[in-house]
User: What shape does this take?
Amino acid sequence: MANIVEFVRVLWAIVWNAMALNPRLAQEVYQYPQAFWYILTIVFISGISLLIGQSVILFVNRVSPQRFLLSLVMSGFMQIVSIILWATVVFLAGDILFSARPRFVDVLNIVMLSTAPFVFGFLVLIPYAGMFVYRLLNAWSFIIAVGAIRFTYNVGWGNALLAVGLGWIFAYLLTITVGRPVIALRNRIARQVVGTSLDARPKEILNALMQQAGTPSDPADSNKKGGSER
Amino acid sequence: MIELLFVGLVMLLLLSAATAPLESLGWYAGWFGERQDARSTEITVAPEVAERPPAKHYIVYLSGIGAIDPDTIPAEEVRFLDRVDDRTPGSYLIRDIFPYSVTNVGMTSNRLFSRLWDWLLNLREAGRKLGALVFVLNIRNMFQVAVSSDTRYGPIYNLGVTNEILIALQRHGYVLGSNVPVTLLGWSGGGQVSMGTATFLGNYIKGDLRIITLGGVMASEAGALATRKIYQLDGGKDPLVKFGALIFPGRWPLYKTSYYNRARAMGRIVRKDIGPLTHTGSTNYFADTPMPAPYTTTYAECALDAVIEAIVAEKMIFDSTEDRACGTSSANPAPMLRGRQSQDVSPMVEPNIFDDMLTHNDRQ
Assistant: This one.
């Protein structure tokens, strides 16, 4: 029991320091022998939490409670895979752009740390304010990533931004080119776990329900303005 | 210690906000059993209803966020509704809907915190001041109002409450497809639920749907276009009404194509400042406190007059009461009716007194 409490305490300390943009965090983490596993746990939890926040997609597709739980676990693992891929791309971009040569595991650690805000991803569920929370968490995560890259490669904000940006572009190019089979495999696994293709979207549900009711749906009104203008 | 308590409270608040949509989402996903579709399910009409003559008009009351379950609404609202009932002959008033649950299950029935709600209900019914505990009660329902107004959850939530309204209507003898008009009377957060459910209800009942909101806090909903007329009856000293107009950008004049603004441009929304009423306290919409001069009535009567005027204006009932507009004398009409004697507000002669007000408000 004491071990679990200690584990949670350390986990919370890492999340807190990452979110507080503590510049020494990356350095301190490197010195901590089991840091990698702690950070990996944070990534896993952030994947689960973010899916809880966006779980409306599971509910509108009428996923059963068992499949729902499985989807959460899968989301945790998928978050780990995504972060490893992104860290690889950032590492390669850093290799090209900068003279510093950090170890891959160090870059992986800092990219994983940037997922710390998503531990609060479940707050995206909050009605009306949820989408704002989602954007806030994304921006926070991005700032942590840029700050950590800056520290690791000992470069300015501009160069750090360039590395993260290039990493993002490389990752995007990969997903639409050689990465397509990997994406297809991921989607296939997701379909198997969830038990549905997750085709239904909340807005489509609204339109379908409104059409059933006889009220003319108005994509111009709902799509252009979204939740914020209701 | 105080800091820890504060952090704990904030976390609790965030957690309860985050879990607010789960009831309606779980209902839609079928997690709580098979969903009952009111349109295809045979609803048993209550025995006392079967003996009554058929109604020409139904009024469905959707209470504010102070409601705890379908049969227990605050006493002052009960008194108010009794008066509405008295002044709307030929209409049926339905008041056993809990608008903050997709399954019409009250907070005291079979829920995780039902004991807490039960305790609060007992305190309230014993006439005890709830103080800060009112916040606990209101916050739960306030989050449900937010669910109703959220584009992600709103359609599902509003569909669920629509279903419950349809069940209640049929239980009170309403025949689907009979074209008998229905008016939703939404108080405070009930205004949002009225607008949200109108999206579906307006077409399901195949009749005329109208909405009257009292101190309504609501977003721009598609229901505004599925409704024949919406009367927004607001107290001039009600800050929550102004807050509602501020936090929902679809109601800002800037977004001319929002559902709300389109309905307003079409003349379907009539806004009326019904007097110096507040949202809470001794000068609220249901308070039997005398109003200051030049008014000669109570705040509750003032709100009641406005509601009846709206129903009369829509020709749902004929009301022979001449002295309206917050009960001011004919020689000293209320500001909104200045320039016209109150006896001119004869409903059958000139039913749409609100149209003038609409024109007046739109020019502002």
Summary: Chain B has twelve helices and six strands.
